[in-house]
Each structure stands twice: as structure tokens, then as C-alpha cells.
From TrEMBL:
InterPro entries hit by this protein: MFS, MFS_dom, MFS_trans_sf, Proton-linked_MCT
SUPFAM superfamilies, per the entry: MFS general substrate transporter
Gene Ontology cellular component terms for the protein in this record: plasma membrane
Transmembrane segments: 12-34, 54-73, 80-98, 110-132, 144-164, 176-197, 266-289, 301-320, 332-351, 357-380, 392-416, 422-446
Domain Major facilitator superfamily (MFS) profile intervals: 15-448
Provenance organism: Helobdella robusta
Superkingdom, taxonomy of origin: Eukaryota
GO MF, one example: transmembrane transporter activity
Taxonomic lineage: Eukaryota, Metazoa, Spiralia, Lophotrochozoa, Annelida
Region described as Disordered: 218-252
Protein name: Major facilitator superfamily (MFS) profile domain-containing protein
Keyword GTP-binding attached: no
Alphabetical keyword list: Membrane, Transmembrane, Transmembrane helix
Length: 501
């Protein structure tokens, strides 16, 4: 199938996909360039690196931790929930950015940027992810491609915003950077969120009423078969409407209980804890590297170039890995195992190899490559590991990622403030990725052990059932023969079925 025919087949879905990518670029711009602003704020307000980093990290933490709230809102509002969450979140983002540009103290930014911008980003983030899943559900031939390609927006945002933010902050001020970002977020966010309306499938599933049903016939008198079909359809509809409300509530409660039990399984617990450590290793480099390179006496241009190359390598990996993603469906966990193991080794060797500008550039590009590989399939893999609805799986995974983002300053800023060295910070990052790689490795092992136990139990049950059926056939042989002789009209298929019983 050609690209053009595939686009025409799901035109609205691809338009929404493009909108989500542009919204992600503008929304996540300050996520990755906030390290440049941290360096400026620490100089102007004489605040610690840990406290200033918490302003930016806290917004990311709120975006992930409270992701279940917009999920519930979207489920409650239905089709219009995606658009409402997108537009409301965009407005909150704009208000938070504008008000942050007027703050005179760093602690005040916890309310304007961390809370307001973080809550708005939470609503926009979940509306963007879930609307993509609505057009490319699990099982769709482009599901993995669509859900992973959205992450290119984060890498492109880092690629564009790092040099752009550095230029604006150095040439004008950090306040102008916030104001320009607020304007761009509102324009792109409102326009893109307006497309967040899934396909209306109600018309296809809604039963025809009497006028619609009979107007399609050309004969004046309706045939008896059509009348019977219509009456049968109406009876089914009435039976469906008269279904007790208690049964619906019971089904919902059973679904909630089954989902809760799913998150108590050992492999799912390993996945959620790994998501916690994975979030620490993902966001920490973007906050510590600008200040780290400043301590290495690198120029502002070189710092901006290194951050840009890190983002470029990350973006390229997102693009390259999204293409074969659908071929790796069911085996995405092994990508996480490989990436986290290599990332552990890289962070351990960082402080031993950062002798000059060229080595720091190579290390930064390798870091961007591996953190992209470690995160590109998180969205699709969350449903594969948990085996439940992707909305619920992604929301709970985001909650644990949010906790990881919240504690990231504890493992980076506080370690640096205590030791005044980044050697301990990189060693911490190596330890974190080591733990996550061990947890990722345990997931397929636990699943394989569970499958082996299930196969053994099924074999034992089959053997017991076969022995019981044989005993039943011996005792009831004569009875079955009398029954078959008296019922010649019974079909051969039914006779074989009864013999098996």
C-alpha cells in the first residue's frame, strides 16, 4: 500500500497525529532547555541548583503523576473530552508561563510554573496520547509507529529550543523567553487541540428507527420478512434497555477489581518500579549537563552545541526505531533491557572519559541515543507488559514516572550541593540504570515461568478430564446406542459431539 493511499484510508487520524507532534514540540520545549534557564536563575537570584532545578522538574513530575485525572475526565465527557482537555490544558500552560515571567523570586515559580504549567501540560499530554490511540488502537498495523513517532516531538523540541532559548536568554532575558513561549504554546495548542475529535462510530452502531428502515424499500407494502426482522430488532433493543442497572455496576466493579489485581502481579510491579528509575535517568541529564559543562569551563556556544547534538542523536533514534516498531510487537521489553544496560555502562565511564570538549560531545551524543532507545517504546510496551487497557496502563506508568521525576533532584542536585562534584551524580545515574535493567530483565523471566506453570496445570487438567470421559463412555455405552437408534434425524456432527461427551 502506498503512502498516499494509506493516508487517505485514515486521513483524520494522520491529521491528528501531525497536530500532536507540533503540540508536543511546543509543550516540551522548556522541559529540555530549562537547564539553561536554571544556570541563569542561580546567578540572578543566588539560589541553589537543587531548588532551582525543582521548579522545572516539578512541572514534569505533575505532568506524569496526575495523568489519571485527565483520563477520567476524557472518559466522563466522551468524544468531546479530548478537545476540552487539550484546550483547557493549553490555556493553563499559557497562564503559567506568562505569570512566571513576572516573578521576582524563585520560590514563587513553584506556583506559576510548577503547578499551573504542570497541570496544564498534564491535560494536554494525556489528551494527545489518548487521541492518537483512539485513531491507532492496539492491534492497528501502525499502532507502534504512531505512538513512538510522537516522541520525536520531544527530541525536536530539545533540538530547536536549546540553541533558541540560549540565544534569547543571553541576548534579551529569561523573562522574554517565557513570554514568547507562552504565546507560541497558546497558538499551536488551541489550533491543534481543535482537531481532537475521534471518529463518530455511533451512527454505524445505532439501530434504525421505523422511518429509516422502511424508506429504503421501494415497494409500497413491506414484506413479512422485513416486518419480522424489524420486530425482532425492536425486541432486542427493548431487552437491552431493560437490563438492570445493578448488573452494569457489577460489571464495572469487576473490571476495576481485575485491573487492580493485574497491577499486583510480580512482572507488572517490576515494570512500574523500573519506570520510576527510568524517569530519573531520562530527565536528569537535561538539567545537570549545562551546569556541569559550565564547571568544565566550556563556552556558551559549545554548551549549546553539545546539547543540540544530544537532542539530534535522540531525535534520529526516535525516527529510526519507530519504523520497525510494529515488527517488534510483543518483544519491546528486550529493547529496554539492551538500552538500560548500555546506559548504565556509559554513565559509569562518563567521569573517566570527559577529558576534553570532543569526548564530552561524543558522550553526550551517546547519552541521547541510549535514553531515546530506552524510552521510545514505553507507551506501547506498558500495555504489552500489563495486558490491560492501554489508557489505564499508561496512566499508572506515568504516575510512577512522575514519582521518579520528583525525586530526581534528590539524586542529582543534592549530591552535587554536598560534594561539589559531578562524579557522584554520574555514579548515581549508573546505579539507577543498573537497577532498571535488572528489573526489565526479570519481566520476561517471570512471564516465562508463569507460562510454564500454566502449561503444566493445563496438561494435568487434560489428563484428568480424558480419564473421566473414558469412564463415562464405558458405563453409558448402551444408553447412547439406544438413543442414536431412535433418533435417525440427528446430524453426524451432533452425534460425534454427543459421543465425545
Amino acid at each position: 500500500m502506498s503512502i498516499r493511499s494509506e493516508f487517505n484510508e485514515n486521513r483524520r487520524g494522520w491529521i491528528v497525529f501531525i497536530s500532536v507532534v507540533f503540540i508536543t514540540i511546543t509543550r516540551a520545549g522548556f522541559y529540555y532547555s530549562f537547564g539553561i534557564i536554571v544556570a541563569k536563575l542561580t546567578e540572578e537570584f543566588n539560589e541553589s541548583v537543587a531548588l532551582t532545578s525543582w521548579v522545572g522538574i516539578g512541572a514534569i513530575a505533575i505532568t506524569n503523576t496526575f495523568s489519571f485525572v485527565p483520563t477520567l475526565v476524557i472518559r466522563r465527557l466522551g468524544r468531546c473530552g479530548y478537545r476540552v482537555c487539550g484546550i483547557v490544558g493549553t490555556v493553563l500552560e499559557g497562564i503559567g508561563l506568562f505569570s512566571t515571567s513576572c516573578m521576582q523570586k524563585v520560590p514563587h515559580m513553584f506556583f506559576t510554573y510548577t503547578i499551573l504549567f504542570g497541570v496544564g501540560s498534564c491535560f494536554v499530554n494525556m489528551a494527545s496520547n489518548l487521541i492518537v490511540t483512539a485513531f491507532f488502537p492496539r492491534g492497528h498495523k501502525r499502532h507502534v509507529f504512531a505512538t513512538t513517532s510522537v516522541y520525536c516531538g520531544y527530541a525536536i523540541a530539545s533540538l530547536i529550543y536549546n540553541p533558541l532559548t540560549n540565544t534569547v536568554v543571553e541576548g534579551l532575558s529569561w523573562r522574554v523567553a517565557f513570554q514568547a513561549q507562552a504565546t507560541l504554546v497558546i497558538l499551536v495548542g488551541v489550533a491543534g487541540s481543535w482537531t481532537f475529535v475521534p471518529n463518530n462510530e455511533d451512527k454505524e452502531s445505532k439501530p434504525l428507527n421505523a422511518d429509516q428502515h422502511f424508506n429504503h424499500t421501494t415497494d409500497v407494502e413491506t414484506s413479512t420478512k422485513q416486518q419480522q426482522h424489524y420486530r425482532h430488532h425492536q425486541e432486542q433493543q427493548q431487552q437491552h434497555q431493560q437490563q438492570p442497572h445493578e448488573n452494569l455496576q457489577q460489571d464495572e466493579s469487576n473490571s476495576m477489581k481485575s485491573n487492580a489485581r493485574a497491577f499486583l502481579k510480580l512482572d507488572v510491579v517490576c515494570w512500574l518500579v523500573a519506570a520510576y528509575f527510568n524517569a530519573i535517568s531520562y530527565f536528569t541529564p537535561f538539567f545537570i549537563l549545562p551546569h556541569y559543562m559550565k564547571k568544565k569551563n566550556l563556552t556558551t556556544f559549545n554548551i549549546s552545541l553539545i546539547m543540540m547534538m544530544l537532542s539530534l542523536s535522540e531525535c534520529l533514534i526516535y525516527l529510526v526505531t519507530s519504523l520497525p516498531g510494529d515488527l517488534l510487537a510483543g518483544k519491546l521489553i528486550y529493547v529496554h533491557i539492551t538500552a538500560s544496560s548500555l546506559l548504565c555502562l556509559l554513565n559509569y565511564l562518563w567521569s573517566l572519559l570527559d577529558a576534553n570538549y570532543g569526548m564530552i560531545l561524543a558522550l553526550a551524543m551517546s547519552e541521547g541515543l541510549l535514553i531515546a532507545l530506552n524510552c521510545v517504546y514505553v507507551y506501547a510496551c506498558s500495555a504489552e507488559v500489563t495486558d490491560i487497557n492501554i489508557e489505564i496502563a499508561w496512566s499508572v506508568t506515568n504516575i510512577f514516572s512522575g514519582f521518579g521525576v520528583i525525586t530526581a533532584p534528590l539524586f542529582s542536585g543534592f549530591i552535587y550541593d554536598l560534594t561539589l562534584s559531578y562524579y557522584g551524580v554520574f555514579f548515581m545515574m549508573s546505579s539507577v540504570t543498573l537497577v532498571s535493567s535488572i528489573l526489565y530483565c526479570s519481566i520476561p523471566l517471570i512471564k516465562s515461568c508463569g507460562n510454564n506453570n500454566n502449561n503444566k496445570n493445563n496438561k494435568n487438567m487434560d489428563n484428568n478430564n480424558n480419564s473421566n470421559y473414558g469412564y463415562h463412555d464405558i458405563n453409558n455405552d448402551s444408553t447412547d446406542n439406544d438413543y442414536y437408534n431412535n433418533n435417525d434425524a440427528v446430524s453426524e456432527k451432533r452425534r460425534r459431539w454427543l459421543c465425545w461427551l
